Structure formats: structure tokens, C-alpha cells
Amino acid sequence: MRSFAEVFGASPDALGDAPGRVNLLGEHTDYSEGLVLPASIAQRTRVGVRRTGKSFCSVYSANLDRGAQFTLDSVPSEPFARYLYGSLRALVDSGVDVPNLEVHVVSEIPLGAGLSSSAALEVATLRALRNLLSLDLDDIRIAQLAHHAETRYAGVQCGILDQMACSLLDGDEMLFLDTRSLSRRMLALPADSQILVIDSGIARTLGATRYNERRAECEEAARRLEVPTLRDVTDVQVVDALPDPLRRRARHVVTENARAIRAAEDLDAKTFGALMFESHASLRDDYEVSIDALDELVGLLRTDDRVYGAKLTGAGFGGACVVLCRSGAARLVAERALAQYHASGHAGRMLVPDPFLHG
């Protein structure tokens, strides 16, 4: 991959980075102001920035070996550049005088796997700008600006889960986050457990999926139930008055919030994992965001006694599944599941733990 100096002929003035994330529980609840339980992964996105005297910004993705140029007055057409543009514009919208820049991006986070590559890019870019311009921005504010960048300029009407996870997490802990109040606490993984992530081999592009449709369905369900958001419904029987598919969408959100609350109670790994299996079933049947390949992977993992739980992670419609398994067993679990998965004609791979990364 080409370095900053190889692309721009100089060294960056400032750097920023952020990890990817998986979501153990609380899937598709953040845009209903729900409760979530993400964890970070070792893979990171790194951004270098440099002031330029030119009348436009130049950006380059080392992974894609592709560049783009834009001014802050016009949204670029290049998809990856829209996230960079949105991050810069989020600062401009908040009153920061952002200069024209050269921006270099390199990432270890697989694209289209549901590991928040876009949120990590936004957070890393904003951290680089914080360092370059000596901005007084804490990590909560960074997450809020990154969320503004994605919803307004990338066109994905997501909640704030991904940006908060990429901005606040960095280690072996989970983040129990109330996306309404942003109150939060760090929690340890269940004893004798570790996280495994397996890519289904089927990529998804968030803006091209039915993600925004699901959000609209939740908003309509809340309107019909006469509550601000589905977060305000705690009795799952209340949603029975709704017509399908609104009833099933709302049932997922209400039960998923309950699972996240239960999982934050210092559970043993087996009980925690059972909640993950329940979450996947709900995402498959009530929320209809899974696909056959992810269902097959989860089914294969369920038959391994070293696995406590598994579910799709991220928006769904492709991407990866996250697994809670016995500590030290992740690679063996992945090898067993992938051998069977490949035999049925799929092309999945282990993403976490990554053999090319330390930690």
C-alpha cells in the first residue's frame, strides 16, 4: 500500500485512529434510543492529515488505491470520500474553520462485514483533525460529530451505536450504553470467554440495504403506539395491537432491549451466549435482516460445545457473525465451522482474532 509520503510527497501534520467494533447485544435498537452492548476489535483505521495551500481537499484510500478531490461546498461522488467529506463538514457545521487538506486513509477493518468500518473512518478522521487544529473535543463529542457526518452526508439514518463504540472502546471491555441519555459503563466479558468474528463472505452496503426502511418502520410503530420511540415500550404484549410487519419489528426492539439489560448483569458465559442466540433468532424472524448464509453459520456454531452464543453483528443483509466462545478456543472453533461452511459452497473467513495482528 502507498504511504502518505508516497502519495502526497510529504509527511502528515497530524494522525488519528480508531478501532472497529462488534455488537454483542442490542442490535437495531439504537435508532429507537435503545440499549446496546458493543465491544471493540483489534483492527483499526488510521488517518493522516496535512494542510495544503490548494483550493480543494485531496483524499486517498490506500486499501482501495483510489483518490478523490473535492471542496467543502460540494459532496464528492466517490463513496469512500463521502465519509471523509462528511467528517470535515460536521466540524464546519459546528463552527470550526477547517482548512483544505490532504488526507490519507489505511484500514485493517474489512469493508462490508458489519464491523463499523465507516464509523471508525469518521472517528479516526475527526481525531486527526482534533490533533491538527488543537480542538477541545472529548470522545463523546467526536462520536456525535461522526454520527452527524454519516446521517447527513453519507445518507445512512443510523443510530449512534457505531460511532460511540469506535470512539469510547479500545480494549477487552464491553460498553453498556443507553443511546438515549448516553449514560454508559464499561463491563468485562463473561469469565472464560473470548470474541470470535466470522465473515459470511457476503458483503453488504449499508446505504443500499433496507436499513433505512427498518428505521421508518420503527418510527411508524412508535407513532401508532403513541410513544416517542420504541424505547418507551417495556411490555412486549403492547406491540400485539400493531399490524404486521410493524408488530414483529417492534417486538424485536422491545425484546432486544430486555436482552441487553439482562446481559449487563454480570452473567456467566453460557447464559450470556443464550441471549445472543435469542437475539439472532429475533433478527432473523422478527426483524428480517439476516440471510441464509448467516443463519447457516450460526447453526453450525451452535453445534460446537466450545461456543456459548452467536449472532449476526451489524446491520445484517450480509456481513459477519460474532461468537462468544471458550477462552483460547476461537481459532479451533472457526476452523471447524468454516470447514463445514466451505463444504456447502460458501467462502467465509475468520476476522477476529486476526492472525496478522497482535492482541
Question: What would your notes on this structure say?
Answer:
38% of the residues lie in helices and 23% in strands. It folds into two domains: 14-187, Ribosomal Protein S5, domain 2 (2-Layer Sandwich); 193-352, Alpha-Beta Plaits (2-Layer Sandwich), CATH 3.30.70. It has 359 residues and is an alpha+beta fold. It is globular.
Sum up the structure in keywords.
alpha+beta; Ribosomal Protein S5, domain 2; 359 residues; globular; Alpha-Beta Plaits; 23% strand; 10 helices
What's the SSE pattern?
Answer: HEEEEHEHHHEEEHHHHEEHE
Structural class: alpha+beta
Helical content class? 25-40%
Low-confidence runs (pLDDT<50, min 5 residues)?
none
Our count of domains comes out at 2
Report the CATH topology name of the largest domain: Ribosomal Protein S5, domain 2
Mean pLDDT: 94
Largest sheet entry: 7 strands, mixed
Top-tier CATH class of the largest domain? Alpha Beta
Shape: globular
* Count of individual helical segments: 10
Number of strands: 11
Q: CATH architecture of the largest domain, please?
A: 2-Layer Sandwich
Binned strand content: 15-25%
Radius of gyration: 20 Å
Report, as a whole number of angstroms, the end-to-end distance. Answer: 23 Å
